[in-house]
Amino acid sequence: MALFKVDNVKVVGMGATVPKYEESNWDYDLLTEKEQDLLVKTTGIEKRRIAQSGTTTSDLCYHSAKNLLSKLEWNSNEIELLIFVSQSPDYYLPATSIILQDRLGLPKTAIAFDINLGCSGFVYGLSVISTLISTARIKKALLFSGDVSSFSINKNDKSTFPLFGDAGTVTALEFDSSANPLYFNLQSDGSGYEAIIIPDGGLRNPTNDESYIEHQIEKGIKRSRRNLKLEGMDIFNFSLREVAPNINNLLEYANEDKSDFDYFVMHQANKLMNESIRKKLKIEKDKVPYSLAKFGNTSSASIPLTIVSELKNNLSKGKHKLILSGFGVGLSWASVLLDTNNLICTEVLEYE
User: Fold this and answer.
1) Are 5 and 336 in contact (CB under 8 A)?
2) Spatial separation of the C-alpha atoms in residues 130 and 72, rounded to whole Å
3) In sequence order, which ranges of the chain are alpha helices (DSSP H)?
4) CA 259 – CA 256 distance, rounded (Å)
5) What is the domain extent for residue 285?
6) Which tens digits make up the pLDDT trace of 203-230?
7) Which of 74, 156, 265, 296 has the lowest CB atom count within 10 Å?
8) pLDDT attached to residue 1
9) What is the CATH number of the domain that holds 348?
């Protein structure tokens, strides 16, 4: 296990943006009324925000950044590092981070690169950006995380369409020699790569004439090989098996007791699954916030979006201890222990 500590890094602020257009699972006509009730009860997802044609993940992230930078009173030319975590980039190439560097007016001396990760992406991205800040003594940096997952979802697939929403977030960090350490535990298991996958479109299975042909998998599940495929039970079993031990091992490594933490923010995947993890860890309900009902599963955006949406007011005053954990596509999972001090958060912004 990749257990490690990073010193001298402070998480200063967070921002989040969602598309204005909203889909309600109560209006999803592929499900009966009884199925709608069961879906909402088990997943916790009532509504999702869906990007309209032409809107990219970077648009949502850029909107978040402009607002947060104004609130922090940061100047763009002070930012030395930008990382973009997403599985829905603007282009196959070049990297979206470099486009954002120019769009935000960051100096040409800034480091910029992308990370291709989903559910665990925010924590992985946080580990990479904080390590660079610490080792290179970078003064100010921005971590973007988000996805427009709806582009790959088939509306006729009831196993995926009601679950995923779109969002883009930004997290601001800076070098601070007085900051408490961040502790990380990062893991991966590629043997489960087919559990969440878009089969065609890469070099392994290039897009061809058959890639967009929709196939009836079973009743209520119709998709093409360019659509997202999700094996829900495989992910459920993986998460219940791996997430709690990952967090417990991290707490032991950091010599911390989970009772001392104020909040435990999980990737917003599925209410039933997340509640099962919470119970395994014996964490109180009021320490585990959810944004699932409003936004659904927003991939790598889900942890910062939940913080901005549900904890903004609480974290803005004083010091707090957080456990953050992301898990899913890859298979990949990661957790971090971090402290905040008067964290500055924007409102959840809407993008038209």
Assistant:
1) no
2) 19
3) 33-43, 57-72, 96-103, 121-136, 232-254, 271-281, 292-295, 302-310, 312-315
4) 9
5) 1-352
6) 999 999 999 999 999 999 999 999 999 9
7) 156
8) 53
9) 3.40.47.10
